[in-house]
Design goal:
DNA_primase_Znf_CHC2, two-stranded antiparallel sheet, 141 residues, DNA Primase, Chain A, Zinc finger CHC2-type domain-containing protein, zinc ion binding, 15% strand, five-stranded antiparallel beta sheet, DNA binding, Znf_CHC2, 5 helices, elongated
């Protein structure tokens, strides 16, 4: 997992270029008061704009077989060791995945969260940084 540190300007350093909102702890956890005041991430925008294929590319996923939009291969969540593994199944048109061994499942954000072992909020910020895009913060609740 890549560590993200904040410089004095509030920008992250390291491999991820995500910008955290002012006052947020770099790991997204902070104190209880900080967590209550954190701005929300617009997850619907991320699910719409970041594709499963982009996440798979970041994970260097290599499908061992495919049929149309359905891919099969080793699971990036639990780390299949067999080169010909087909336990991990991804439907690109639906943006959903499922592992038949560890039973991890979900959309592209949940996949990134599971692989990086981060809460969804932190995973969303991390993923935006890895893709070099701004985090879609919710302006108003």
């Amino acid at each position: 997992m890549l560590a993200m540190e904040r410089s004095h300007e509030g920008r992250s350093t390291g491999a991820s270029s995500a910008v955290y909102p002012p006052g947020e702890a770099p790991n997204g956890r902070g104190t209880e008061r900080e967590r209550q005041n954190m701005p929300g991430v617009d997850f619907s925008v991320l699910r719409r704009e970041i594709t499963m294929q982009q996440v798979l590319d970041l994970l260097d996923f290599q499908a061992t077989s495919h049929s149309g939009d359905q891919l099969h291969g080793p699971c990036p969540v639990h780390g299949s060791t067999s080169a010909g593994s087909r336990v991990f199944s991804v439907n690109l048109s639906r943006g959903r995945y499922y592992c038949h061994k560890c039973e991890s499942q979900g959309n592209q954000l949940e996949l990134w969260s599971a692989v990086r072992d981060l809460p969804l909020y932190d995973a969303a910020v991390d993923l935006c940084g890895m893709l070099g895009r701004e985090v879609p913060w919710i302006e108003q609740w």
